[in-house]
């Protein structure tokens, strides 16, 4: 089993590594690959009307990339040494098309962990997320902005029947079947109109405690209701919608408050 960690932001690097370490312990994984993707060209000079970068601009860009890589590598090595992951953590730096680089690495990994961005970071994180989630079709875990004492012991499944959710549940299954308690959240237009999903009976048959929480959903309160019902969990499992809708949800859509007020680790699949 391999867990891939994408480190592209100093502020979210440690939470991403801590989340990956927690998952590795829960899943018995001894192969943590840490990827630091680097742009090959300066994003400030991407279109013809922006001209060509001068020597000073090129040097500044190179220094910025190198300094960030040095910071991220130090965070990674310090974390690995402090947590006993030195021998199973492998550092990789790769310059080029970030989306393609991440997609290539993610295609050979069981889980991809990346730091959850702040609401204004969409432009910086989208290539990594798109490469892992949409191109490689990997299971992606968005790490919280703060550390959790546990991960996957009390998971919450946001139920919305879709192929993406089926894949997310399949990826999370080793955690779900060993969980202390699983909560399944179902949004309905009218209460009790949907039967319990099959995974409820399957998990209960395995001896897992399962709680089913239902709520009346509207376009304006979905995020707040899920946040309230998932407050006691330590992992949110949900399917990703099509690219535009999911990225809108992540970076400023109607359920942004899930990310900003209840930043659970989020496991998703497209």
UniProtKB/TrEMBL annotation:
Highest taxon of source: Bacteria
Protein name: Universal stress protein
The organism's taxonomic lineage, starting at the top: Bacteria, Pseudomonadati, Pseudomonadota, Alphaproteobacteria, Acetobacterales
């Amino acid at each position: 089993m391999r867990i891939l960690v994408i480190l592209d932001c100093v502020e979210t690097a440690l939470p991403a590594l801590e989340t990956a370490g927690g998952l590795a312990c829960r899943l018995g994984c001894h192969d943590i690959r840490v990827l630091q993707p680097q742009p090959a060209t300066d994003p400030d000079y991407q279109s013809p009307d922006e001209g060509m970068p001068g020597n000073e601009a090129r040097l500044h860009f190179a220094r910025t990339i190198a300094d960030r890589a040095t910071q991220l590598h130090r965070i990674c090595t310090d974390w690995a040494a402090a947590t006993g992951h030195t021998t199973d953590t492998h550092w990789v730096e790769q310059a080029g098309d970030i989306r393609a680089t991440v997609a290539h690495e993610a295609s050979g990994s069981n889980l991809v962990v990346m730091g959850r961005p702040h609401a204004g970071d969409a432009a910086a994180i989208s290539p990594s997320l798109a490469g892992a989630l949409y191109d490689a079709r990997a299971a992606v875990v968005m790490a919280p902005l703060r550390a959790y004492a546990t991960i996957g012991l009390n998971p919450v499944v946001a139920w919305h029947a879709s192929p993406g959710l089926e894949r997310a549940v399949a990826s999370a299954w080793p955690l779900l079947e060993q969980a202390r308690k699983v909560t399944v959240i179902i949004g309905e237009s009218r209460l009790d109109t949907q039967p319990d999903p099959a995974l409820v009976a399957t998990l209960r048959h395995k001896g897992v405690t399962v709680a089913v929480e239902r709520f009346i959903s509207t376009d304006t309160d979905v995020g707040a209701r899920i946040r309230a019902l998932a407050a006691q969990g330590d992992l949110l499992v949900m399917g990703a919608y099509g690219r535009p809708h999911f990225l809108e949800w992540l970076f400023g859509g109607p359920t942004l408050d899930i990310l900003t007020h209840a930043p659970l680790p989020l496991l998703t699949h497209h």
